[in-house]
Amino acid sequence: MTGSRIDDPIISLPAGATLHPLVLPARADAGSPGPFRDYAEVRNRCLEAASGRDDDSFTPEELLPLLTSDAYSQRRQWRIVIGPRTVGVALLNISRDGEGDTATMAISVLPEEQGRGLATAVAAHLEQLARADGVHTLQVWTEHLPADEPALVSPTGFGSVPRDHTARFLLAQGWTLEQVDRVSEYRWGEDDHLPALRAAAEEAASGYRVVQWLLPTPDERLDGYAWMKSRMSTDAPDAAMGSPEETWDADRVREQDTRWLDMGHTVQVTVAEHIATGELCAYNELSLKGPEDSVTQQNDTLVLAAHRGHRLGLLVKTAGLLSWHERFPRSARVVTYNAEENRPMLSINEQLGFVPIAHGGAWKKVLD
Question: Contact, 325 vs 144, CB < 8 A?
């Protein structure tokens, strides 16, 4: 059995609502329509309301692998129900990295049902479950549209989010804003300058060469890719979030690849290889779900510390975007997220032509 435990109780909430554990089906179309498809629909509606975009909406078939527990994360989900309707969703993902005491929590309620105390009651229940499982630090990531609200400035000194409904709720629940992300978008145009930027990057990176693949990762690249993925959890700006160091090996890369492919995603990995040693030292990921005219997500980009100063970030990003556009010319938009204090990556994105479209908040709550 996957997802929430089948013996989890149904919890009474304010306004006649109840909290139902979600037991994941073996297949997304099993028993449809039903609780799982309701969960997927309400999840998507809540995300679209928060971001103003459907970039992160998933079909039930795409969503099922994302919600399933594995050796690296225990994942549980719930539905908030009033009468026959699902009006909200919640999740608690406990990381098995580090000491296993860090978890991601998220609660989403449809806009028309907010203000009734539902999220507050669900939060109390999920925090109790987290404590029982030994969790010390809770994390949540939010997205915020521009709003005529006072600004809540990041303690890093870089960026802010509006004190909107989401921010006010988290502050009232004892969460602290630790970091602000910039959501950026690139749109392909006819007068593209990426080839010239790639040429300049190649000249600066004369001791390196570009290697690319589509998932699944070739066996000979598993160990090098795994090492770079592990450094993503330590080298990317984390402010005071306290995220654990992730342990990656070939098996974990294979598991990640399987999850992406089971979700129906096409993922391209572009790496810079040090010619003299064969070491993989920088990488960029691009992914596409659904139709070929869907939005492209630019996921991880990292340059190992020992190889910085050779414009490898610009190299893997330009090489990745150019080959990706040849493969998927109908995907007109690329979206990416970066910490506002990550000036090296933001500078590359701005040089490429990415522009800000929204901001996200990284929040933390330390449990007693």
Answer: no
With CA atoms as reference, report the closest residue to 116 among 5, 17, 233, 263.
17
**Would you call 240 helix, strand, or coil by DSSP?**
coil
CB 225 within 8 A of CB 255: no
Residue 151: strand pairing partners: 162
pLDDT in tens, 186-218: 999 876 899 999 999 999 999 999 999 999 999
pTM: 0.94
CA angle, residues 80, 103, 136, in degrees to nearest 5: 115
CA dihedral 93, 119, 184, 253 (to 10 degrees): 10
C-alpha dihedral, 135 to 138 to 139 to 142, nearest 10°? 140
Q: Could you report the per-residue pLDDT of 146-161, keeping only the tens digit for each?
A: 889 999 999 999 999 9
| CB-CB contact of 59 with 29 (8 Å) | no
Rounded CA-CA distance 365/320 in Å is: 37
Q: What is the pLDDT of residue 5?
A: 59
Neighbours of 191 (CB within 10 A): 4
Any residues with CB less than 8 A from the CB of 31 and at least 6 apart, and which? Answer: 25
Q: How far apart are CA 91 and CA 107, in angstroms?
A: 7
Give the separation between CA 282 and CA 314, rounded to whole angstroms. Answer: 10
310 secondary structure, DSSP code: S
Share in percent of the chain as helix, strand, coil (round to 5): 35, 30, 35
Q: Residue 228: enclosing H or E segment and its boundaries?
A: helix 222-235
